[in-house]
Amino acid sequence: MVPDQDYELFEAASNAFLDDELINKGLSIARNTVNTLLEARKQPPPIEVRVYGYEDQQINALAMKSDRAYKIALSTATLTRFFHWYKMWFQAPNMNALFQNEQDTDDVLIERLYKYSVAYIALHELFHIMNGHCDIPKNEEHFVSEKPDMCGAERYFFNQVLEFDADRAAVRSCMYLLLTKTSTYADLFREMGLFSFAIYNVFLKFQNDSKFGFDDYIKHVFYIKNHPYDSIRFSYSFAFIVDGLLQISRQQVVIDHFVVPTAERLVAFEKQVLGVSEVKNCLFAASFTYQGAQHIMNLNNAWNDVAEQLKPYAHMPLAEGEHMSSMRIFLDNAGNFYKAPEEKMEADDLAE
User: Fold this and answer.
1) Which distant-in-sequence residues (6+ apart) come within 8 Å of 62 by Cβ?
2) Shortest CA distance to 296 belongs to which of 324, 259, 274?
3) Cα distance between residue 215 and residue 193, in whole Å
4) What pLDDT sits at residue 109?
């Protein structure tokens, strides 16, 4: 996110902050993650990126350009609330059942989930910088549209595609870092399961703060803000994880050892720990609507057009758009599952 106001940044939290040690731990995680990724590149980018904190009670992070230096800033809420969130839920009666196959203690799991949450957010902001989002002139933040009624939504759609790009790059980069630290597929699937749970909670917190729910989404108000709906963001992020794993392992192995156990954990977390009684009120619900599936396709398909505008400003090669298969199972406007007619899905597949 690019800031629309000035913030007082700090490199380290003083003891004037209530959670100064936790804030500084989060900043250390963010810096180590960003530096490790930049140093791993064969040709490090000719830019300087620094990580800061700033005081704000809202979970948020910023990417900005100042003269020749680029800055990533994480709010104090981002650096503290995820840790306290995980610590609170690990005290819930049903939480341990979700992690019964993990050998680590609750305290270790809390630390890892906190680390993955902060690392993901820091990398998301890093790729706003690396992919040229902070450098593109403001007057180029639009699409060329022949539909007059789309003009008001174009800027939001453009910015949503940038978020889609940063999300994808952050997910893939986290996968790369985990690949370098795990020695077996079992370890990789386990860590990716924890990472998926962490980013699920990141988007869940965003959704809770935005108070934008399923009933709002099905009204087709897709392009009224700069970020895609959080259900959509998690859905395509999870799809990128699965696609990445399929490139290094067999399909049935990925399904049996990652997709199924991870999905079951997320559903159980919503139902048994958070007490969500209706499917439509779960974070993932909107992505299972027909509108949600189309929204994801629109973001993915629009990426190549946006990438052309970004190329002159990017500090690294930009990824190309990826194929995303149409879903077969949807939620209707009342939040009930139904199977789409085959002829409808075949038409959508051809349209892609």
Assistant:
1) 1, 2, 3, 7, 54, 71, 72, 73, 74, 125
2) 324
3) 29
4) 96
pLDDT digits over 40-73, tens only? Answer: 877 767 788 999 999 999 999 999 988 778 999 9
Distance of alpha carbon 85 from alpha carbon 164, whole angstroms: 25
Q: Encode pLDDT of 226-240 as tens digits.
A: 888 898 999 999 999
Of the candidates 40, 67, 56, 54, the one whose C-alpha atom is nearest the C-alpha of residue 11 is 54
Separation of alpha carbons 193 and 266, rounded Å: 10
Q: Report the range of poorest mean pLDDT among 127-136, 182-191, 212-221, 270-279.
A: 212-221
* Burial zone of 100 (CB within 10 Å; 0-12 exposed, 13-18 middle, 19+ buried): exposed
Q: What is the DSSP string of 272-333?
A: IIS---SGGGSTTGGGGBHHHHHHHHHHHHHHHHHHHHHTTT-SSPPPPP---PPPSEEE-T
Q: Are 128 and 166 in contact (CB under 8 A)?
A: yes
249 three-state secondary structure? coil
Which residue type occupies 272? Q
Whole-prediction pTM:
0.89
